[in-house]
Description:
The chain is about 30% helix and about 20% strand. The protein is of the alpha/beta class. It folds into 2 domains: about 5-85 and about 170-320, P-loop containing nucleotide triphosphate hydrolases (Rossmann fold, 3-Layer(aba) Sandwich), CATH 3.40.50; about 95-165, no CATH class. The chain has an 8-stranded mixed sheet, sandwiched between helices. Strands 1, 2, 4, 5 and 6 form a 5-stranded antiparallel sheet that branches.
Amino acid sequence: MAPVLSIANLRVSFPRMEAVRGVSLTLRRGETHCLVGESGCGKSISALSVMNLLPRSAVRSADHIRFHEHDLLAMSERQMAWLRGDKIAMIFQEPMTSLNPAYTIGSQMAEVLERHRRASRRQALDRAAELLARVGITAPGMRLAQYPHQLSGGLRQRTMIATALMCDPEVLIADEPTTALDVTVQSQVLRLLRKLQQEMGLALLLITHDFGIVARMAEHVSVMYAGEVVESGPVEQIIKAPTHPYTRGLLNCIPVPGMTKPGEPLGSIPGGVPHIGRGFLGCGFRERCPMAARECAEPVHLHDAGENHFYRCRLPPDWKMDASP
C-alpha cells in the first residue's frame, strides 16, 4: 500500500539551534505511527513542519514531504490553508489554548465545515452535533452552545477530536492528546482514537513520551532524541529487542506488571536533552550514555538491525547481550 504521508530527511533549524535533524517516516492508511521521546526532542516541531505551522524564525527543509502525490514543500500558504483541517487535521497538545474562549463550541466546530466544504451554518452544526455524539459526549446539542471553560479537560479533548474529524481527514496528527488528563480519562481518549481510526481508516501520527501508549496504540514507532530518529521499526520488534541505549533507557522507566514490585524504584535516565547547535557532530545521547566512547563524537550512521528495524549507534545490534545501560 502506498503511503498517505511520506517525510524524507526533514530538517528544522532556528537561529541558534537545530531542532530537527534528518527525520524520515512513512504513514499508511489505517496505520498508527508513534513519535516517542522526552520533551524537547523535536517531536512536536516535526509534526508542525508537516502542517507548515512553524514560527517565523524557523527554517524548514527536506528531500520531500508528500501527501499522496502532492509535494507539501511546494505548496503556497493559501494551498496549505485549504489542506489543513480538511485532508490533514491535527489535535494540539493543550485543548484549552487551542479552543477560543470567546466563542461557543458550536461556532468553532461549524467554521471548519463552512470554510472547507462551503456548508451552511445549519449543516455544519448538525455535523458538529453528530460528531460530538460519536466521540461520546452526551447532550451534544446543549454542548454546542457552551464555551470551552464550561467543559472538563476530558470533554475539551473529545471536542478537539470531533473538530479535527469535521471534514473526514485522511491523516490525523495527535500531539500528546492525553497530556494533563487523569489516568481514567487518558484511557478513554486512547480507546476513542483507536475506535475512530478503525471506523474511518485514518492514518494516525501519534506523538507521546510514554512507551506504554506506544505499545498499546501503534504498529510502528520512531524514537526521537535531540532532534533525530535514533531508532525506528515495528513496535513489537523494538520493545522485544531495543538496540539504541536511549530506547532501552525509556523502556526501563516503565513498570512491568508482575515483575516490578510495589515501591521498587523505576529506571531513570540521568541528565537532560542537550542543546544542539549548528555544526553539532556525533551522537546527541553520548553525554548521558553509560556505553559512550570516543567514537561517539564522530558522525553516527543509521544501521539496519533486520526486520525493518533501524538504529543510529556505533554498537552492534547484539550489544545488549553483553552489557546493559
